[in-house]
Amino acid sequence: MKILITGGAGFIASHVADAYLEDGHEVVIVDNLSTGYLSNVNPKAKFYLLDICSQDLNKVMAVEKPDIVNHHAAQISVPFSVKEPLLDERTNVWGLINVLQNCVRHNVKKMVFISSGGAVYGEAEEYPTSESCGVKPMSPYAINKMIGEFYLEFYRQQHGLDYTILRYANVYGPRQVAKGEAGVVSIFIEKLLANQQPELYAFDGEPDGMVRDYVYVKDVVQANLKALLSGSGEVFNIGTGMETTTRTLYNEIAGQLGSDLQPLPSPPRAGDLRRSLLNSKKAEAMLQWQPTYSLSNGIAETIDFIKNI
């Protein structure tokens, strides 16, 4: 199949592109390089330097005629979305609609859409949180990701565009940018390698920080492979179901690096959640997907990558 990947020069999507190519698919990447890097782009993929909001996307789709679009392009920072909600909306809603319109115009069969299980549920009442739990988005980023999911269903009903939605937990691994909460693993590693104290964000009375579900990028790639032919019209959580506090994460990284530096306690940022943990049993049953990497093994591979950059 020919697969067009938006945001394919970024951390997660570049790994997905590599896996699609290895599986024998033809890959086209569209990325404006605002957060991605040309060095992440597999030389076997065809690359277009383009913003997903651009009307020139129509020309690319007309030439390439992809069978499937894997939509990773997004504004991913929760604090940024709180500060600049219109800019978040531009990419995460307007940009998505531009991609969807072109999918319909050029007879794309399916979209694999990347949503956020770490954000759309808000402070959920069910832990680990399943897809049947009501959503309570508490930031513009989360709101706009949820709007994106609604648009997918509209386009399926109105235009017959199939989709599979993957709601990621907190993804980490090689190529992750040390920026924002989404990059906390890389931030901790890079700071400690430089013998600098990173910040540990925590709510009052919770010194160990937030609870998160950290899933390794190679496991996430497998979910994207499964979603090509499975999960029609469905939403799937992609996480480990394992609780990890920020302190536990920090201790694991510091331990592997042999560092005794302690992090600097800091207050939570705008839009931060106390707890996020995903139940991925639906993905296990319907996609035959489940994570295989332990936190320790994933951290070890990430450290090795960062040390060798």
Descriptors:
UDP-galactose 4-epimerase, domain 1; 10 helices; 13 strands; 38% helix; 2 domains; two-stranded parallel ribbon; 309 residues; Rossmann fold; 17% strand
Question: Any overview of this molecule?
Answer:
The protein is of the alpha/beta class. It has 2 domains: 2-170 and 215-238, NAD(P)-binding Rossmann-like Domain (Rossmann fold); 172-212 and 242-307, UDP-galactose 4-epimerase, domain 1 (Alpha-Beta Complex), CATH 3.90.25.10. The protein contains 10 helices and 13 strands. It has helices spanning 11-22, 57-64, 78-83, 85-105, 140-159, 184-193, 217-226, 246-257, 281-286, 295-307; strands at residues 2-6, 26-31, 46-49, 68-71, 110-116, 162-168, 170-172, 199-201, 211-212, 214-216, 234-238, 244-245, 264-266. A 7-stranded parallel sheet has the order 3-2-1-4-5-6-11, with helices on both faces. Strands 7-10 form a two-stranded parallel sheet. Strands 8-13 form a two-stranded parallel sheet. Helix 8 (246-257) packs across helix 10 (295-307). It is globular. The relative contact order is 0.15. The model has no long low-confidence stretch (mean pLDDT 96).
What is the CATH top level name of the largest domain? Answer: Alpha Beta
Number of helices, counting only DSSP H or I runs of 4 residues or more: 10
Largest sheet: spatial strand order? 3-2-1-4-5-6-11
User: Could you name the ranges where pLDDT drops below 50 across 5 or more consecutive residues?
Assistant: none
- The percent range for strand residues is 15-25%
Helix content: 25-40%
Which class do the helix and strand fractions yield? Answer: alpha/beta
Would you identify the CATH H-level superfamily of the largest domain?
A: NAD(P)-binding Rossmann-like Domain
Mean pLDDT: 96
Largest sheet: 7 strands, parallel
End-to-end CA span: 33 Å
The CATH topology of the largest domain, please? Answer: Rossmann fold
